Amino acid sequence: MKYMGDYPSKRTRSVNELTDQIFEGALKAEPLKDEIFCQILKQMTDNHVKYSEEKGWELLWLCAGLFPPSNVLLPHVQRFLQSKKHHPLAPDCMQRLQKALRNGSRKYPPHLVEVEAIQHKTTQIFHKVYFPDDTDEAFEVESSTKAKDFCLNISSRLLLKSPEGFSLFVKISDKVISVPEGDFFFDFVRHLTDWIKKARPAKDGIVPSLTYQVFFMKKLWTTTVPGKDSFADSIFHYYQELPKYLRGYHKCSREEVFQLGALIYRVKFEDDKSHFPSIPKMLKELIPQDLIRQLSPDDWKRSIVAYFNRQAGKSREEAKLMFLKIIFKWPTFGSAFFEVKQTTEPHFPEILLIAINKYGVSLIDPKNKDILTTYPFTKISNWSSGNTYFHITIGNLVQGSKLLCETSLGYKMDDLLTSYISQMLTTMSKQRNSRGQSK
């Protein structure tokens, strides 16, 4: 009644304060779902106050996008909507009901974006998605959109050969978190903002504003082969591998560094040689940071220019592919790297670089970049993470060894490990099934 203006309410509220109060209970207790539908329909029946009725339509639109009514109530809700089919929102509510019946119930009340959309009389919600090559595009997101549908939609618009291995990520405050493919997109964002709000209490009664960005990136590199999908190479693989290379995470020969430096220059400037004189100033963008001091700036420049001239006539896209093909030969290609501190393994350095990739979990000496050991996923029996740590058990729980790491990125390591292992198990069961059928 407060939302529809039928009950006087003086104070101004945040956009979704009332919608939270209306829908939170119903999302926790099944019987209340029908109750909410009944209350809204009752409030809209023979309602002669135009403003109140319009606000009722907003609530019905939101409700239909959150959960379906029970089979007993469904025909009544549908009849109500059919009787009002001249109202612009009626057909849209009908469609939302169908999708809710197909996709199941959401877990959280409507996201701020959904409430604002319907209050501004727009039933289409567009969301900006950012890509590693610094471009972005807007995509339509519905209340019923799950992360998997969103990924499919993005990959088909970008003409990628397959969405496999790609994921949506939400960047909020200092965290970048991958969205599980089975989650409703708005549920995930809602859950995340609520969780961060709890962790950061309001200062002087001011709730911190939590803006977030959505990224679409390659997450699992199990089947990635440069040259197999030129759009994926050009938009994602090159721009995701470049910063890891420049941070000095890979072990590589000087010859490769000259070659890669020339290719990075070519991606930046194509055939334009007018930037040669400034190469010494931009070594940070061309050479792994820990190697820059090994040669004088002029020596670096001379070697990069020599290699650049050998690759004459190559386009930007060819240079990206050549860059990826060189890195692809290294055992650390497609890794996510984490710098951690460990105290459990006396024969390993205290500061370790951990790479998680398609081969498993590799421990790397950060000084010389040697791979000390790689634990394949099949040997990892347990792992856990918290705000300040990541723990992993190799072998069985009784005789296995445990590696304890101090890191603030435990949540990312945990998520990657879970995703790679679940992908491995899915692949194994598919192979088993196809072998069973072929017998």
Unreliable segments (pLDDT under 50, ≥5 consecutive)?
none
The secondary-structure element order is HHHHHHEEHEEHEHHHHEEEEEEEH
If you compute it from the alpha carbons, what radius of gyration comes out, rounded to the nearest whole angstrom?
27 Å
Task: Tell me the number of strands.
Answer: 12
Task: Note down, in words, how this protein is organized.
- It is a single chain.
- The chain contains 13 helices and 12 strands.
- The strands form 2 sheets. The chain has a 7-stranded antiparallel beta sheet with strand order 9-8-7-6-12-11-10, with helices on one face. The chain has a 5-stranded mixed beta sheet with strand order 2-1-5-3-4, with helices on both faces.
- Helix 1 crosses helix 2 (31-44), helix 2 (31-44) packs antiparallel against helix 3 and helix 3 (50-66) runs parallel beside helix 5.
- The protein is elongated.
- A hairpin with a 3-residue loop joins strand 10 and strand 11.
- It has 4 domains: 17-119, MyTH4 domain (Serine Threonine Protein Phosphatase 5, Tetratricopeptide repeat, Alpha Horseshoe); 126-218, Ubiquitin-like (UB roll) (Roll); 230-328, Acyl-CoA Binding Protein (Up-down Bundle); 336-436, PH-domain like, CATH 2.30.29.30.
- With 439 residues, the chain is α+β, with helices and mostly antiparallel strands.
- It is 43% helix and 16% strand.
